[in-house]
Amino acid sequence: MVTGNVTKDYEALRQDLKTLRSDVSALAEALVAGGKGRAQSAKESAVEQARRRLEQISSQTNAACNRGREVVDTVERQVAEHPCKSLSAVFGVGLLLGAALNWWRHRCRT
Fold first, then answer.
1. In this structure, are residues 86 and 78 in contact, taking their beta carbons and an 8 Å threshold?
2. 13 lies in which domain range?
3. What is the pLDDT of residues 31-56, one digit of tens each?
4. What is the C-alpha to C-alpha distance for residues 43 and 37, in angstroms, rounded to an integer?
5. Are 79 and 86 in contact (CB under 8 A)?
6. How many domains is the chain partitioned into structurally?
7. Are 105 and 98 in contact (CB under 8 A)?
8. Can you spell out the DSSP letters for 36-70?
């Protein structure tokens, strides 16, 4: 009589442990899947932010290149329209630069 109850209890306990193992396994799989989902979401967010930043940098680079071309075109036009003034300006800048370098050279010796 006592043996029958112990056997039933033992079998019920074994079945409960089997169910518990199955539930823990399913929970672990759900946690892993959820972690993968969050990691995938974070990856997608990071990729999207990087793409937007790259587009911003590309746009800024293009704007800077266009501005540089405009400056070069303006300088070329000014030199073509006023060659004597341009030559005089360059000569003056060269004199100032030479004087500054000469002053610096003498200053560094002492």
1. yes
2. 2-81
3. 887 777 777 788 888 888 988 999 99
4. 10
5. yes
6. 1
7. no
8. HHHHHHHHHHHHHHHHHHHHHHHHHHHHHHHHHHH
Helices and strands in the chain: count of H runs, count of E runs: 2, 0
Q: What digits encode the pLDDT tens for the residues 46-99?
A: 888 988 999 999 999 999 999 999 999 998 999 899 999 989 999 999 999 999
pTM here?
A: 0.48
Please indicate, yes or no, if residue 88 is contained in any of the structural domains.
no
20: in domain: yes
Which residue type sits at 47?
Answer: V
- Angle of helix 83-109 versus helix 2-81 axis, rounded to 10: 120
CA within 13 Å, CB half, 99 = 6
Question: Within a domain: residue 89?
Answer: no
DSSP 82: -
pLDDT band at 29; cut points 50, 70, 90: confident
